[in-house]
């Protein structure tokens, strides 16, 4: 059991790590949304930087005057999303190997200032059971919820 939890934690930590690398460790908080339902993987990530909640492609909007700009090229963003997807696949394989339920949705929050990590998991189908919304819609809703409630 301990081995499963350690490997699971390592994969989550890798998701956070690549997101921190994307902003050169210059974020107050990192948020990762990961979804895996019926062989469809989706992910999103966003930040709290200088008391502003910003999506990954808008991190430069949170800079203070004179702050070093982030590289938000599509290539870098795609690389981060690719690594997160690989980590989600790793979690899926790990859950199969240890005969554990695979979360259909993971919401990860890392507070870079305090070092605290928080995770919320869902195991029921989320977007698969919705006729209109996609995983991206649920990720966008979480961003708005976090922003509106200062989470």
| Overall geometry | globular
How widely separated are the two ends?
31 Å
Could you name the CATH class? Alpha Beta
How many separate helices?
A: 3
* Fraction of residues in β-strands: 15-25%
Q: CATH homologous superfamily - what is it?
A: BH3703-like domains
What's the architecture in CATH terms?
A: 2-Layer Sandwich
CATH topology: Murine Class I Major Histocompatibility Complex, H2-DB, Chain A, domain 1
Q: Order of SSEs, N→C?
A: HEEEHEEH
Strands, count: 5
| Helical percentage | 25-40%
Major sheet description: 5 strands, antiparallel
Residue windows where pLDDT falls under 50 for at least 5 positions: none
Q: What Rg is obtained from the alpha carbons, in whole angstroms?
A: 15 Å
Strands, helices and their partners?
Layout: H1 2-22, E1 29-37, E2 40-49, E3 52-55, H2 74-97, E4 105-111, E5 117-122, H3 135-149
Antiparallel strand pairs: 1-2, 1-4, 2-3, 4-5
Helix pairs in contact: 1-2
Structure, described:
This protein is α+β, with helices and mostly antiparallel strands and 151 residues long. The chain has a single domain, classed as Murine Class I Major Histocompatibility Complex, H2-DB, Chain A, domain 1 (2-Layer Sandwich). Helices cover 40% and strands 24% of the residues. It has 3 helices and 5 strands; from the N terminus they run H-E-E-E-H-E-E-H. Strands 3-2-1-4-5 form a 5-stranded antiparallel sheet, with helices on both faces. A hairpin with a 2-residue loop joins strand 2 (40-49) and strand 3. The radius of gyration is 15 Å and the shape is globular. The two termini are 31 Å apart. The model has no long low-confidence stretch (mean pLDDT 93). This is DUF600 family protein. InterPro entries: YezG-like, YezG-like_sf. It comes from Bacillus luti.
């Amino acid at each position: 059991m301990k081995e499963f939890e350690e490997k699971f934690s390592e994969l989550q930590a890798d998701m956070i790590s690549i997101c921190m690398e994307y902003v050169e460790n210059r974020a107050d908080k990192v948020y990762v949304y990961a979804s895996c339902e019926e062989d469809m993987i989706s992910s999103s990530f966003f930040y709290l930087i200088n008391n502003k909640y910003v999506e990954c492609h808008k991190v430069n909007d949170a800079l203070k005057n004179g702050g070093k700009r982030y590289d938000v090229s599509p290539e870098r963003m795609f690389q981060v999303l690719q690594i997160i997807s690989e980590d989600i696949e790793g979690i899926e394989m790990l859950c199969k190997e240890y005969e554990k339920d695979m979360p259909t949705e993971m919401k990860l929050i890392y507070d870079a200032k305090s070092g605290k990590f928080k995770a919320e998991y869902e195991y029921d189908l989320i977007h698969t059971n919705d006729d209109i919304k996609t995983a991206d819609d649920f990720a966008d809703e979480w961003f708005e919820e976090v922003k509106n409630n200062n989470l």
